[in-house]
Amino acid sequence: MRTQVAIIGAGPAGLTLGRLLERAGIDAIIIEQRSADYVLGRIRAGVLEQSSVDLLRAIGAGARMDEEGLFHDGVELSFDGDTLRVDFNELVGRRVMVYGQTEVTRDLMDARAASGAVSIYGAQDVAIHDFDGAAPRVTYKKDGRDFEITCDFIAGCDGYHGVTRASVPAGAVTGFERVYPFGWLGVLVDQPPVSEELIYAHHARGFALCSMRSQTRSRYYVQVPAGEVVEDWSDDRFWEELRARLNPETAETLKTGTPIEKSIAPLRSFVAEPLRFGSMFLAGDAAHIVPPTGAKGLNMAIHDVAVLAEALTERYGEKSNAGIDAYSARVLENTWRTERFSWWMTQLLHTFPETGDFGRRIQRADFDYLRVSRIARQSLAENYTGFKSA
Ligand code: RFL
Ligand code: PHB
Question: Which residue in 99, 203, 292, 303 is the catalytic one?
Answer without folding.
Answer: 292
